[in-house]
Amino acid sequence: MGYVAVRGGQEAIEESLKLLEWERVRSERSVDIESIQAAFPDLIDQIMGESSLYAPELAALALKQAQGSPEEAVFLLRAFRSTLERPYVSRTVEPETMAVDRRISAAFKDVPGGQVLGTTRDYTHRLIDFNLREEDGDSLHEARKRLKREWRKKALDEAFATAGSSAASAGCEALWEECAAHALPKVAEYLREEGLLVEHERNDEEPIDVTMEPLAFPAPRSARLQTLARGMTQAVSALGYAAIRGFGPAHPTVAELRHGTVEVAIDHPLGSGDESDAYCVGTMPVTEVESLFEVETEDEAGEKGLGFELGYGMVMGRGETKAIAMSVLDNCLERGDKRFPTQDEEFVLYHVDGIEATGFISHLKLPHYVTFQSKLSSVRKTRDGAGGVERSSTTETE
User: Fold this and answer.
1) Given pLDDT bands bounded at 50, 70 and 90, which one contains residue 94?
2) Do 325 and 240 touch, CB atoms closer than 8 A?
3) How far from the centroid of its chain's Cα atoms is residue 299's Cα?
4) How far is C-alpha 395 from the geometric centre of its chain's CA atoms?
5) Is the Cβ–Cβ distance between 353 and 232 less than 8 Å?
6) Bridge partners for 99 per DSSP
7) How far apart are CA 227 and CA 357, in angstroms?
8) Which of 39, 104, 138, 343 is the most exposed, fewest CB within 10 Å of its CB?
9) What pLDDT does residue 202 have?
10) What superkingdom heads the lineage (predicted)?
11) How far apart are CA 278 and CA 78, in angstroms?
12) Is 51 helix (H, G, I), strand (E, B) or coil?
């Protein structure tokens, strides 16, 4: 945008950029990329998710360059993503095969495989730990050793209890090293087996890639889910909250929330295209949510009843709140009743994109001299006209 309208504008911009760099370097303290990744894993996940690019190191680098601004870091990473080639498209990821390290259900107390709390802040007291001010490398090392000792002891005790001392001494190390992550069945399948879930016709169309094609309405579900997944975390959460509060008839029960890693596989370039020819190129951490919504149903005979519909959310990393809100909005947009703002595709999908929102709001800071002069002239004319009428009326009255 060419908004520079005065002499010396380019020079002022260059000096402003120097000041920005000064703000970054003046403390003479640099944080390395590995430390940023280790200290802010959730923030790194958020930046990658909103950027649609799984690259932890680059996300940390963008956050460092942006001086801690998530929205600027997302802008940087999305801009970099736009320069990359796409030589392959992965096969469909099957969440059922997820290596789960956290899995809870708000709908059922007992589920096959059990509730796996994993890593969560849900049960913390939200009190500031002032001891962290004094934390250094040595204290971190001691904390790691203490936790490892506790886990090793627990694994050893369990081995003694189940296999006896000889097997325990041989197998305690393996038990301790073994990852707790394992595949678990989907909770919603039990409702589906009972016929309690509303079934919809299977859609085998190729998904729309919203990074390559502009949004068009009505949008297919694939485009809606992609847009929500890469939407600004706070925007998706806020609109999901609004839907639950009454700006959309949606109050879900979380059938299952799971976090873990999924394999990403691509077809061999010289293969037949069968699944047997595919090979794994890596894994990716994701959070998946399936929420249940009670709805009215009608069978083929015209008998009315009740059933459940699923709302779906999946995001990169540990964005649990966003994934739940995404499942709420997914169900809202499936209903599509425009009397409710959270069921209006255009309202929701256009306004959750953080880059679009940030860019449009930020552009208001740029010079609008010409347009404002036009507005100012209009306001002055109306004021002058009103003043003339008032003076005329006063004269006649006198």
Assistant:
1) confident
2) yes
3) 37
4) 67
5) yes
6) 261
7) 14
8) 138
9) 81
10) Bacteria
11) 28
12) helix
CB–CB of 261/284 below 8 Å?
A: yes
Three-state SS at 90: coil
Question: Hey, what are 51's tokens?
Answer: 């950027």
Rounded CA-CA distance 157/172 in Å is: 9
Q: For the CA atoms of the chain, what is the radius of gyration?
A: 28
Mean pLDDT of the residues in the chain? 85
Which tens digit of pLDDT belongs to each residue from 38-47? 999 999 999 9
Q: Rounded mean pLDDT of 265-283?
A: 82
- How is residue 143 written in tokens? 């904390």
Alpha-carbon distance of 329 to 240, in angstroms, equals 6
Listed in sequence order, the residues at least 6 apart from 42 whose beta carbon sits closer than 8 Å to its beta carbon are 317, 318, 319
Read off the tokens for 104.
Answer: 């809870």
Is the pLDDT at 385 greater than 80? The verdict is no
Alpha-carbon distances of 7 from 4, 10, 18, 139, 234, rounded to whole Å: 8, 8, 19, 56, 40
| pLDDT exceeds cutoff 50 at 218 | yes
Dist CA 2 CA 181 (whole Å): 54
Contact present, 129 and 316 (Cβ < 8 Å):
no
Name the pLDDT band for 102 (thresholds 50, 70, 90). very high
Tally of CA atoms within 13 A in the half-sphere of 186 that contains its CB: 16
Q: Cα–Cα distance between 222 and 312 in angstroms, integer?
A: 11
Mean local confidence (pLDDT), 23-36: 88
Hey, what are 120's tokens?
């969560």
What is residue 55's predicted lDDT score, i.e. its pLDDT?
95
Type and span of the H or E element at 58: helix 56-65
Two structure tokens written together for 170: 């041989």
CB 340 within 8 A of CB 224: no
Residue 290's pLDDT band, with cuts at 50, 70 and 90, is very high
Q: Of 180-194, 233-247, 254-268, which range is least confident?
A: 180-194
Secondary structure letter of residue 16 according to DSSP: H
Q: Which residues are CB-contacts of 253 (< 8 A; sequence separation ≥ 6)?
A: 106, 107, 291, 292
- Residue 393 pLDDT exceeds 70: no
Q: Across the chain, where does the E strand assignment appear? A: 99-104, 253-266, 279-298, 304-316
Quick count: other Cβ atoms within 10 Å of Cβ 182? 14
What is the distance of C-alpha 397 from the center of its chain? 68
